[in-house]
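User: Some background: our group keeps a shared notebook of sequences we're curious about, and every so often someone picks one and asks for a predicted structure to add to the entry. Today it's my turn. The entry only has the sequence so far, pasted here. Could you supply the structure so I can complete it?
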Amino acid sequence: QSWLPLLFAYTCFGFMYLLVMGFLTTRLEDDSYWTGVDAAFAFTLMGFAMIFGGPLFVAMANRLGARWALSIAFGLWPIFIAIVLSGAYVPTLLASVGLGLLFSGLPSLITLYVVENTLVQDYGPSFAAATLAFGLAQTISPPIGGLLADLTVSFLVVFVLSGLVGFIGLLTSLQLPKQSN
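Assistant: Of course. Here's the predicted structure to add to the notebook entry:
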């Protein structure tokens, strides 16, 4: 069965998460007119939530399966991005927590999916290919985000792009084989 959906899903994650992590505080300060202290607080909440995302989403995967948990996680991404784009204080803080959970939850789920769906001898090459795609996406994401922000004098397009890529990740994760070995 094809591993292309997994490679593409992990690539989506590598691209979309750095658009948010790299530009969240600036988005909140420049576009939503938050103070630096409030924007830093949102970033801190996001960072703190990362501690819990992996265990939370792995527990979800134990109940629903890695493929469904991965799809749910990708599906939440554009929702949280839309909330951040609103700039509303409390909802944005809550969305920042949600994004932090996803920052660690998505890679945990991708790893779990690979572990559950590969033979021992295939795990290394499968995960290496996925990680290479992820790394390449991480490399190009910040410069593209910066260029878009410079061209539009706003971070709106950057965050919309991140949400769109999250939606593509959702569609891709729904294409994952249920079992490949």
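Suggested note for the entry: Residues 76 and 98 are 8 Å apart (CA to CA). The first helix runs from residue 4 to 21.
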